[in-house]
Amino acid sequence: MTSIQLAIENVNVNASTLDTDIYNTAKVNALVARLENVTENSERQWGKMTAFQMCRHMLVSCEIALGKRTYKRQFMGRIFGKMILKSLIKTADDFSKNSPTASFLVIKEDGDLETEKAKLIALLKEFPEQGAAELDGRLHPFFGTISSAGWSRLTYKHFDHHLRQFGA
Which domain holds residue 63? Predict the structure, then answer.
């Protein structure tokens, strides 16, 4: 185990303490309620995504977290992934606006927002159903292996970031 891996595993990330427990049904329901406020007319506060693209982007992110979609590990992630993950999940700070996005998470097409939201809501509700043990040690294509608490914190903060992007 490398020193970076040890540093990530030793980061004090207690998702429930940080109010970001994605395995908690009440927290998921709160995210769903915010997501339901996103409409075709929701104006983005930053970035280039449409509301549909944001939902698809989050859908793919959830599929990765839940093990429904896999991608080859990215070279730059092998070098910087753990360091960046640590900076994202160890603080209460929001994700930075206009952050770089992995190519497999860049959505170019548009579609029906309500259909995409329904798919995303169904996936989001799988987090409490699967539970933390199912996600523990799952591989992220950029960040590498992530603990269940890390997945919780990363997923919750990612959702919050994009919901705020659309004023929800």
Answer: 23-38+45-165
The answer to the question of residue 14 being in a domain is: no
In the chain, what is the straight-line distance between the N-terminal and C-terminal CA atoms, in Å?
A: 40
- Concatenating the DSSP letter of every residue in 37-80 gives T--TTPPPSSSS--HHHHHHHHHHHHHHHTTS---PPPHHHHHH
- 58 assigned to some structural domain: yes
pTM of the model: 0.84
Asked if residue 17 has pLDDT above 80, the reply is: no
DSSP SS3 for 138: strand
* Alpha-carbon span 30 to 14, nearest angstrom: 19
Over the stretch 29-67, which tens digit does the pLDDT of each residue have?
999 999 999 999 999 999 999 999 999 999 999 999 999
- φ and ψ of 144, to 5 deg: 90, -155
**Kind and range of the H or E element at 145?**
strand 144-146
Do 130 and 63 touch, CB atoms closer than 8 A?
A: no
- What phi and psi, each to the nearest 5 degrees, are found at residue 138? -70, 145
| Domain contains 63 | yes
